Amino acid sequence: MPEADFSALTCPAPIEERDLIMLAHGSGGRLTGQLLERTILPALHNPILGALDDSALLSLASGERLAFTTDSYVVKPLFFPGGDIGELAVNGTVNDLSMSGARALGLSLAFILEEGFAVESLRRVLASVRRAADRAGVQVVTGDTKVVDRGKGDGLFVNTAGVGVVPPGVTLGSSRIRPGDAILLSGTIGDHGVAVMAQRRGLELGGSLRSDTQPLDGLVATLLDACPAVHALRDPTRGGLAAILAEIAARCRLGVEVMESAVPVNDDVRGACELLGLDPWFVANEGKLVAFVPADHAEAALAALRSHPYGRDAARIGTIGSARPGTVVVRTLVGGARILDLPFHEPLPRIC
Amino acid sequence: MPEADFSALTCPAPIEERDLIMLAHGSGGRLTGQLLERTILPALHNPILGALDDSALLSLASGERLAFTTDSYVVKPLFFPGGDIGELAVNGTVNDLSMSGARALGLSLAFILEEGFAVESLRRVLASVRRAADRAGVQVVTGDTKVVDRGKGDGLFVNTAGVGVVPPGVTLGSSRIRPGDAILLSGTIGDHGVAVMAQRRGLELGGSLRSDTQPLDGLVATLLDACPAVHALRDPTRGGLAAILAEIAARCRLGVEVMESAVPVNDDVRGACELLGLDPWFVANEGKLVAFVPADHAEAALAALRSHPYGRDAARIGTIGSARPGTVVVRTLVGGARILDLPFHEPLPRIC
Predict the structure, then answer these.
(1) Nearest residue, CB atoms, B72 vs list A27, A142, A144
(2) How would you classify residue A48: left for phi > 0, otherwise alpha for psi between -120 and 50, otherwise beta?
């Protein structure tokens, strides 16, 4: 593939960093992109995988279209303000399906348990899985449980995969994004990652820091009912809003222009980020979406998002352009402009 | 649920064993069954999950039927005689789909990497995943990569999930097994688990011990073409042949009678089992199937299995009865009979 198209993702790494896996390879920053582009995708290459949207699309003989997605969850701690690994895993997979417009048909659930893990904690996670699945109207239909020796795991890792059906007429995907599209964001950013980091560091930052983990199926249905013209949806999880925008710019060879002041951030999240040395733009969200919408449908789409409880704080944050393809330009609060760049080393390991 | 129906799986465990996860909870023996029956299934209960076949079946509006399955792989070592974790993961998921008669439509692939893992080893695993997927005529269409801190994983854990389409007219499932059914086994048992254990213990047991990891889609297609009357297929992975037979007896409230002498075991596997203190009946297989077939179709089914390279050593090993429901009776080589019982503590952790 032409290296030049992925400039944001493929800057050269020193030899030693290419030889051994580092924590940063899993954090959604540049190294994650490099591992994907240089090692994983070349080995497995095929057009469906290559689309790299939140779900893969599969066509059946009947003409029905399936969405299929997977994620492993290694978040630490397992229980955090506003959620736990079980709820996160269900919502994460439901949301990846929703980003293709699919309605979830069934989930799989696979546990890797460490010897010595408390069965009571497993029960709490299972109850949480059940509640989250009920909330999203989906069932866990298949599963697996493995156990590894003490010291060879970290309590509990979870994998969920999901299958969904894409309704007739719905066609969402990054490849449909066009110059002129409005970029909408469904709410505040950084809530999930900051809540987990604050819990991990034992910081007392007030009771308002909570993960935003929530299922987006209802919000997407509301949006698509009101505005079927939507081009693409993405959920800004690992790597945050910045990673999604940089990826769209790089892969679609488009310019992305975003107004810093338009991106909603909770005051407590902003404060915690200052304390923790984080930028909320790079912090994972688990209940937000970014929508790419033709400009003349942007108002209707924004109104639809705002009409739903999970889209109350939705905002138009920017525009897709054709100038400066491959870059994300941020118009700053003081009227300047800067190029958004993904950090090489992410400061947020094991956030999801 | 009526405890009496699951006598083989639900004998009481001492308090301390119910409080913390033990390695044996993951090895396919009684404790695995207990964890499932007492903790996991009650939390997630629904009819599709409750069927507990190798794949879940999902129905679409068009009438098409999907099979959906998942497994995590924590095998140690990652590379063993006859295969590696990548090949195992692909074949395992292809085989679980095949047991429902489904043709694989796409696989997901999720890695949990430990910080410090060699990228070169990841490349080897990826190449192996690709080869195995090509061999089974399926593609990895979606995936995920997470990284955990050094000392919180064990190099590499893999999860695969798979979606397949069940062809019209094919209906396989444990619930269809009836008294009088012949029990067919597609080949020798114990090869995978013994090869992994021998490698792990550094035993020099000659070059012939090799995992039997292989895709069973072609063998199943050959079998179902010749004999559509097959009632159910299962692949005897974790817990081995014994676990499958005990599970069928317990869940279907049927009697299972098996002739010890009819079950094929490679001489080298038998010898290694004696050395390692293992019983090949309890050892994982990764390329074998057990078929439950109406008696008057048994000969045709056996001939079909034997006509395929992966079914060369197929044998009729027993019969389903209605006497002694819930038990597996083994007719021994010396003409006696014994009740097969699942061991409480399995001696084979992390074999798949």
Answers:
(1) A144
(2) alpha
